[in-house]
Each structure stands twice: as C-alpha cells, then as structure tokens.
Amino acid sequence: MSDAAHAHDDHGHGHPSGIMRWLTTTNHKDIGSLYLWFALIMLFVAGTMALLIRAELFQPGLQLTNPDFFNQLTTMHGLLMIFGVIMPAFSGFANWQVPLMLGAPDMAFPRMNNWAFWILPVAGLLLMVSFWLPGGAVAGGWTMYPPLFIQGGISYDLTILAVHIMGLSSIMGSINIITTILNMRAPGLTLMKMPLFCWTWLITAYLLIATMPVLAGAVTMLLTDRNFGTHFFNAAGGGDPVMFQHIFWFFAHPEVYILILPAFGIVSQVIPTFARKPLFGYASMVYATASIAILSFIVWAHHMFTVGMPAAAQLFFMFSTMLIAVPTGVKVFNWVATMWKGSMSFETPMLFAIAFVCLFTIGGFSGLVLAIAPVDIQLHDTYYVVAHFHYVLVSGALFSIFAGIYYWLPKWTGHMYNETLGKWHFWLSVIGMNIVFFPMHFLGLAGMPRRIPDYALQFTEFNQIATVGAFIFGFSQLIFLVVVLKTIKGGAKATDRVWEGAEGLEWTLPSPAPYHTFETAPVVK
Amino acid sequence: MAVGNAKTLGKLVAVTLGMFGFGFALVPFYYKICEVTGINSGAEQSLAKNTQVDSSRWVTLEFDANANEALPWRFKPLQRTLKVHPGQLVQVEYEVSNISDHPIVGQAVPSYGPARAAEFFRKIECFCFTPQTLAAGESRRMPVLFVLDPGMDKEVHTVTLSYTFFDTGVKGQAEASRKGGGHG
Q1: pLDDT at residue number B182
Q2: Would you call B107 helix, strand, or coil by DSSP?
Q3: Is ipTM beyond 0.90?
Q4: What is the CATH number of the domain that holds A125?
Q5: A3 a catalytic residue
Q6: Is position A524 within any domain?
Q7: Which of 25-54 (B) contact A at CB < 8 A?
Q8: Helices A87-102 and A154-183: crossing angle, nearest 10°?
C-alpha cells in the first residue's frame, strides 16, 4: 500500500497537465475514465460497421459493399465490439469502482495499470489501419479460423499482433484487479461481505489470466504457421485446422463469461438499490458465479458440433452446457426475488437492469436451444446464432454497461444526468434492439446463413425490419453521448448518497469522488 | 502490504506463463487423444471404404487367352476362374512369352461372353491398353485391374474374358521400344 500512497503524493503536487496528465496518469479514476472513453469511441466505430452491414442487408443483391469488404466489416465489428468495447468498458468500471468499493486508495500496481490501458489504443490502431493496407482488413471472421487465417495478407499479421497486445492488456488489468481485491480490502471487509461487483470481477479476472494466455498461444501458432514454416494448422504440412478450433474455443468459451460476469455484477448492484432491498441470496450469487466460471472450461466443443466428433463427446458437451443454465437460473431468480415486494422505482439504471434480466434470459434460452447437439447441427452458422449472441451481448453486456454508467455517473461527475434524455435513450434502445435482433431468430430458423452479403429473396422482409431497427438502435446511442457530455459539463448537483437505496463504501464519499480517496482505510463493521 | 502485493503478482504471473505453455501443450495432447480414441485417424480417412460392393451375389469369371496363329507367342492366364462380387476391385495376371528369335510388337484384343457384359467390365489398368514389345525369348507377367459394375444384369452369373494377341507388324520400332521396354 505504501507504494500506491507514495505514487499519489507525487501526483498530488507536480501534476502534469494536458495530454501528459492522461498519458502518465496512475490514478485509478483517470484510468477508469480512459477505458470508458476508449470503449465509447470504439462503440461508435464498430457500431458504424454494424450499420453498414445492416444497410447492405436491407435488400438482397449487392448494393453498398462487395463481398470481401462485407466480410471485413463483420470480422472487424466482432473483434472491436468484444476486445475494444465490452472488455475495456468493464475494465473501466473495475478501475473506477473496485478501489472505491473496497476502501482502497488505488489499484495495487498503478504503473502497470497505466501500461495496461495505453497499449490498448495501439492495438486498436493496428486493427483500424489494416482497412487501408493491400487486401484490406481481416475478413476471416473474429474467430480467426485457419486455413483462411493462414492465407490472408499483411493485415492478418497485424490482427494477430493486436490480439497479443489486447490479451497482454487484459492480463495486466486482471493481475491488478485480483491483487487489489485479495490484498487491499478495508479492515473488516471480508470476501463474503464484498459487493457482488467485486466478486464477479475477481472471478472474471481469474478466467482472464487462465484463458488469455491460451489465446496468445493459439494466435502465436497462427503467426508461426504464416511466417516461420511451422504446420500446426496447415493440413498440407501434417497439421490440423480443427485443432485450432479446439484451442480457440478453450479460450473463447470462458471469454463469453468474461463478457457477461461483470455485467451480472453491475446488475447485482443496481437492482438492490432501486428495489430498496438487499440482494436476495448473496452467497448463492457468489457460488453461482464461481460455478459458471468453472463449468465454462469444459463446454467449449459445443461451438463445433458440426466439425465431426463422436456421439459420446457430443452428449458430454451438450449436457455440460445445459448444466450451466442451473447457476445462471439461480442468478435470474435471485434478481427477481430481490425485486419481489421491493419499493421499486424506475430510474434509467433500473430500467436498463430490468431489461437486462428479461432480455438476457431470452438470450440464455436461445443458448439452451443451440446447446442441443441435433438442433445445433441445423442452426449452426445461421442467423439464429447471430440473434442468440446479440441478445446476450447487446441486451446483456451492453445494457449492463449503460445501467452502470447511469448508476455511477453522478458519483463520478458530481452531477445528475438528465432523466428525461436517459429514458428516451432507454426506450429507443430497448425497442430498437428488439426490432433488430428478434426477427433474426426467424431468419435463422428459416435457414439464412450468417456472414453473407446477399441472401435469397424470401428472407427480404425480416432483413428489412432488422435494418430499420438497427438504425433506430444505432442513432439512439447519440442520445447517450449527449447525456454523458451534458452530465460532465453540468446539471443538478448530486448528493453523496446519490440514490436513496444505495449501499456501500463508494456512497460514503463526496460527489464527485475526490481525486484521492480512502488514503486512510475506512473500517467496515 | 506492498510485499504481499509482490507475492501475489509473482503467483499470478506464474499462472499466466503456465497457461501460455498449456496452450502449446494442447497440441501433443490433442494428437494423443485422437490416437487413443481413434478419432480423426488419417489412415481411415485416406482409404475410404468402398460402399459399392454388392455382396449379395457372386459372379464367376472365366479367363481365356490365345495368341493369333501368325504370332509365335505363348500366352496364358495365371488363373482360369475366379468368383467375385460385383463392385469389388479385382486384379488378375497373364503370362506371355516370345518363343521366336526376334523381337515382336503385339497387341491384345479383348472379347467378352456374353457380349453385353463388356460395358460392365470397368478396367482400371490393362496390358491391352498399349502395344506390348517382347524381345526374343522374353517372358513377362502382366496385370489387369478391374471392377465388375454392380449395375450388371442380375441374371448373368458367369462372364468370360478372352484375350487374343495379334502381331502388329510394326518392326522398325521394335528395337527402339525394346530399350523402353523396361518401363512396361
């Protein structure tokens, strides 16, 4: 702790200003803001790609893009939304909130924290410049499957490098979060008294340090296959492309939970506040989170039912996948039970949290449908899969991020956001989101494949509905931008507690939270 | 507290490096699992099973061989009859010897009994595809590789394959192709 404390003293006095303040900052609040701004910018970049995709799909035939550029758009949309939006946004929340919730003065390793953020824009830049390189950006899908990924041009090497950098960034961030949570809690704050957001992030961080290195290994193998004559995945040299899928999904299924567990944490903070009741079944929430994390390591092959595997293996992966619905169900029931007979009020964070519970559950159910091996063989790589993972990532992860921003922004800025604009943002988002993604279930059941720029005529109407929804959803995010900017600039003064039902150490601080907080640790009874 | 943080950092870095190694360890692990369980074995994939064999019936094949009377060659099949399933890959051999004192180029011409069996006799390799050159006193074994098409009429139970060697009358090339005869 003394390290952190000294670092702060230095900053408190000779504070660099302008760009150098942000480049050299080791303050957890500054770094949290940087992560969140980066995520917001990337949300608009990757969202614009999504709108281009939807515009192309408004009609059958090729209107705006050629097939190669279309594939570049879908690939980059996926990579940027996962590694550039959702993960950095959750890291931003962790940086802002974990020390505040634990009564710690800062993160455990502030200098490493600075590095973890600042290598991220470099990775983003590597991905973005590849659009202007010969052959264009990567077009092999965000899953980076060989043989396509071994055959592409220079941008494929840049993407591999970018994935290495983003992985390193998350690993450094995770080491920081784990160390902070394990070693720097205020006296009396035992693990089982910790806010659930910290618990979900602790488990997420463990998932990250267990799986990100595996992804780094897999893309390193791709890199050496491409440039150094190895044949890990090259069938012509005795390798096996299916092996990549196994190694990749060994990383990427836990990654799915990395993208949703912090969302569970945020929602578990928001719902008790606005239901004015403590979280129902706190201990079961902790155990359910841990069970989901452990199970996530043994279900990876449900992404590859169609590559060919013995029936016994299909059954194992099918049943283990279904088993995850049990702890997830525990969580959903606990959130509903927290709301049950609560004195609920419906401010914007609560609206997003309730939408999360409802719509994430729809995404969970379509996931259960896809877990059934014989059904999956029919639905594999159709729009049903697209609908499924957008329900869990848009109305799941992204909505929880919105909920968290509205919830904590008054604490961070000292101003209340504009509730009217917040409600407009919520209603347009939730309606737009369902118009985009609900028809995709029908398209998938009817057999429309994903990742194609053109489609058969009978799919036209549902695609047109989805495109209209996408533009409503996309442009309503501009309201969010306006709300955030207006709240930073001014607005009604926020009280220290901000919300009537808010519990926890961060609400004992003044609003806005001072630059340095908890330099002497609070005592928790 | 700082000492505690450094210890935690050490452990977490060790886990990270360990998992990076684990990613590479998955490669031999993957091949071992495939080997032990017999999934994904290359041999099985490269030699796809012939599912076209009609094992419900047998066809008796009779082999006959003659040399035209103007050709001083001795010519005989190494097997007189064979029972096969339609669709099965079959190899038979013939032996031919030049009993004259000069090289001769001969050409074998097949005939079938019944004649309409000819279109179901699918030859993959046959000495009758090319002229054969035999040096004086040379003797040679030659294969025929074929499949009897399962589409052949069910009432045909016996097929006779008969070859007759004729003198092609090509003399000038005899010496030249004799050198290349080693390829045959």
Answers
A1: 40
A2: strand
A3: no
A4: 1.20.210.10
A5: no
A6: no
A7: 26-27, 30-31, 37, 39-40
A8: 10
